[in-house]
Amino acid sequence: MVAEVSTGHKNLGHFKRQEMRKSSHIVNTLGAMICIFLLAGPVVAQTVGSVTNLPVPRYVSLKADEGNVRRGPSLSHRIDWVFTRRDMPLQITAEYGNWRRVEDRDGLGGWVHYSLLSGSRTVLVEQDMLTIRTRPEAEAPVAAALEEGVIARLGKCDLEWCRISTAGYKGWAPKTRLWGVTMDEVRD
Q1: How much of the chain exceeds pLDDT 70, in percent?
Q2: Residue 171 vs residues 16, 53, 75: alpha-carbon distances, Å
Q3: Which CATH number fits domain 47-120: 3.40.640.10, 2.40.110.10, 3.40.30.10, 2.30.30.40?
Q4: How many CA atoms lie within 13 A of 144 on its CB side?
Q5: In whole numbers, what is the pLDDT of the chain averaged over residues?
Q6: CB–CB of 160/175 below 8 Å?
Q7: Exposure string (b/e) for 107-118, b if CB count within 10 Å is 16 or more?
Q8: Which CATH topology does 123-179 take?
């Protein structure tokens, strides 16, 4: 025996057409939203620290001559090693109370007390005998040549060049040869 189920509508064909129009409208709307999302380009979710409300990750420098790097965010955690270069650029990747999880250019790090860090920006030269220029142009006169591993103060940056200074020398360096600044960062 076949059971007949009533929809409560006399004109079933009309009901189906209305439902198809609604679902077609939803599909079109979703398609348009997906196109807008794809055309807008990559969206980078920038998070902020739960303590400082500053962007995470961000770059800072080591304020002290020495900084203990711990396994966790407290004095009771073991010291894994000690940073020994004043002004060394570090990247903050997390915050917890008075502690900041940091990484160096090799990706090594741990937890450091915030009092050992400075907001003063520095960079690490990543190319041996990097020539810094008097202007942000590849053909500009050479101001100095810096060895790999030199720490320099970070000044202005455009999308390709940063003005740096160290040991009395000042000049512009290609951003790709420096660690401690993001490629999209512009500084005045």
Answers
A1: 76
A2: 72, 33, 41
A3: 2.30.30.40
A4: 16
A5: 84
A6: yes
A7: eebbbbbeebbe
A8: SH3 type barrels. (2.30.30)
